[in-house]
Write a structure and sequence with these properties.
The chain has 595 residues and is an alpha/beta fold. The protein has 21 helices and 21 strands. Helix 2 packs antiparallel against helix 3, helix 4 packs across helix 10 and helix 5 packs across helix 6.
Length: 595
């Protein structure tokens, strides 16, 4: 997009990086920018400090730095934006924000595309005749906006019916425009798989059939990752863009909270009139891993209010359900302490090595059993080795059913599809990779537990029952970042391992998979987005205080359908309940300027 931040586009930067690999990328970048031809002044150290601060905030996910006024001394290398284009300097001052030029340009382009989309004319349809298909006023509003707008945002927590209402929007559109081409996508492979399953359930609703709204295309409607939709290959350059737009009439993107600024810009650029866009997501979830919090920014724009609907009634969690109460507690305005959390949620105390065979009522049952369950395993501030081993032992109990299923599969009494379903009953979610409460240590502990229970003695990386997750897209293998598979013995070659990927319904030889693939008994909370499990174990580490937040905890507990167990010190829990992510961005300001 621009030469100032395209590190691979200038051999001088590439060579500097090779010469000093110990230097962080932004320190090298700061040195590069604070010299001719960008800067000729004498206050080089002061300028370096400002540019370094700007690079650091982008490492934290901010697209810009908020300032009361443009910092002194940076005039030579800064474009002050007051409506003039193009911008040919490495920094941009767009009051009250200071940017690296790349991120200002990304926001500017995205704002222009959003503004153009909401101004796009769409033929109007009277949706009142379909009111019987809906259960509340929010759903009726969502149907009207989704059918009659070129841009729509439908948000809501778990079980609020986002996919349910999407199926009805698509059904009504297909009734009036039978040849309409519709694309469905999500940011990760797992999210796309879940979207596919939920959509097929929603399309099979008898109400659609009775209303004459079922269309044969529903049976073949498939979902894909957003990268695949946009035609992003290894170089991450989209095949579809403003000069070669997507060949669809409607594009739907689920889990839109995961959209970072770069991916959102690529998506909106590939959508040109008359194509419409519908975003689905949960605005309370974690922001994207990379720069930007696009869904939250779009929600802040007053001019976009007519195009957004928040679904609030949860069908998954009843008013008296503990998990639903927990999710609401996180965002309630209150004096939050562990005591107020205990009083509101009333979690069960988890004992060392406790079995999680807990009887619960089904969702639609009138049985007196509780419909869901929240447990708490308090951790000490200072963990000794015995404490850590007790924690691992307790976490491992959640995989008891998986161990049984592996034995049954080995004996031939269940198939690999059934095995994968059992594996998805439970997952451990962590905040970060390192230390005793991190991804690597817990995955290693669960590996040792499974090997012991299945009497696996060899030391190889691959073993029967090993769950793995892709860390990157692999277009040759047809695998996406986030795809999860289970290592099995190849029935045709007993000496070889293959990995079954349920999302693709296919097996791939373990030897063909990339070295970067990771064991997946435990996932980071970020990687769990787009997934659902019957039981979610959430491990919070107080050493990750800069990462602990309301959004992180909310995302973790709402991955669970029936059970949540929290493993945390009181300090880490309070930090998670009190800290709210605030990302700096000028996107909302730029959209308001263009609407």
């Amino acid at each position: 997009m621009d030469n100032f931040v395209n590190k691979s586009g200038d051999k001088r930067v590439e060579n500097m990086l090779k010469e000093n690999t110990a230097t962080t990328w932004y320190q090298t970048w700061v040195d590069y920018l604070c010299q001719p031809p960008f800067y000729h002044g004498e206050n080089q150290q002061e300028i370096k400090t400002i540019v370094e601060q700007l690079c650091l905030v982008q490492e934290q996910g901010d697209s810009c730095m908020r300032c009361e006024h443009c910092p002194q001394g940076v005039d030579e290398m800064t474009h002050s934006f007051i409506g003039q284009l193009p911008v040919h300097k490495p920094l941009v001052w767009d009051a009250p924000y200071l940017y690296l030029q790349r991120y200002w340009a990304l926001e500017h382009q995205l704002a222009q595309r959003v503004s153009a989309l909401v101004k796009q004319h769409v033929p109007q349809v009277d949706t009142a005749e379909f009111a019987d298909l809906l259960t509340d006023s929010q759903q009726k509003q969502a149907l009207a906006v989704g059918v009659n707008s070129a841009f729509a945002m439908i948000t809501g927590g778990p079980g609020t019916g986002k996919t349910y209402i999407l199926a009805r929007i698509v059904a009504v559109l297909k009734k009036f425009y039978p040849e309409m081409r519709i694309a469905m996508a999500a940011p990760t492979g797992k999210a796309a798989q879940r979207m596919q399953e939920a959509l097929q359930n929603a399309f099979s609703d008898q109400k659609l059939l009775q209303a004459g709204l079922y269309h044969p295309d529903f049976a073949t409607q498939h979902t894909q990752t957003l990268h695949r939709l946009l035609g992003m290959g290894h170089r991450q350059i989209p095949r579809f863009h403003q000069h070669h737009p997507l060949p669809y009439d409607v594009v739907v993107v689920d889990e839109a909270s995961m959209l970072d600024l770069t991916l959102a810009n690529a998506l909106f650029n590939a959508i040109q009139a008359p194509t419409r866009l519908i975003l689905l997501g949960d605005a309370n979830q974690l922001s994207s891993v990379d720069v930007g919090y696009v869904l939250a920014d779009l929600h802040q724009v007053p001019q976009l209010q007519p195009y957004q609907i928040a679904l609030k009634t949860s069908r998954r969690f009843s008013d008296d359900a503990q998990i639903g109460r927990f999710a609401r507690f996180i965002y309630a305005e209150q004096n939050t302490t562990v005591q107020t959390w205990r009083e509101s949620i009333q979690p069960q105390h988890i004992e060392k090595g406790q079995s999680f065979e807990i009887a619960l009522a089904e969702q639609d049952s009138n049985h007196p059993l509780p419909k869901d369950w929240v447990g708490f395993y308090p951790l000490a501030k200072q963990l000794h080795q015995a404490d850590i081993q007790s924690l691992y032992q307790t976490l491992a109990q959640g995989y008891a059913d998986y161990i049984v299923a592996l034995k049954q599969h080995r004996q031939g009494s269940i198939d690999k599809v059934q095995l994968a379903i059992v594996f998805d009953h439970y997952r451990i979610l962590v905040v970060m990779r390192y230390f005793e409460l991190g991804l690597d240590a817990i995955n290693h502990a669960m590996t040792m537990y499974l090997k012991e229970k299945l009497h696996i003695v060899h030391e190889g990386e691959w073993f029967y029952g090993r769950p793995v997750m892709m860390q990157y897209n692999d277009y040759q293998l047809g695998l996406s970042n986030g795809d999860i598979g289970i290592c099995l013995v190849d029935p045709n070659q007993p000496e070889q391992y293959s990995v079954y990927f349920p999302s693709l319904h296919k097996d791939i030889a373990a030897a063909r998979l990339p070295q970067s693939i990771q064991t997946a008994f435990a996932l980071t909370i970020h990687k769990s987005q787009g997934s659902e499990f019957r039981h979610t174990a959430v491990v919070l580490d107080q050493r990750a205080e800069n990462l602990l937040s309301k959004e992180l905890l909310y995302t973790a507990i709402t991955r669970a359908k029936k059970m949540v167990s929290i493993y945390s010190s009181e300090m880490a829990l309070v930090q998670s309940l009190c800290n709210q992510t605030q990302r700096q961005s000028g996107l909302a300001q730029q959209i308001q300027r263009g609407c």
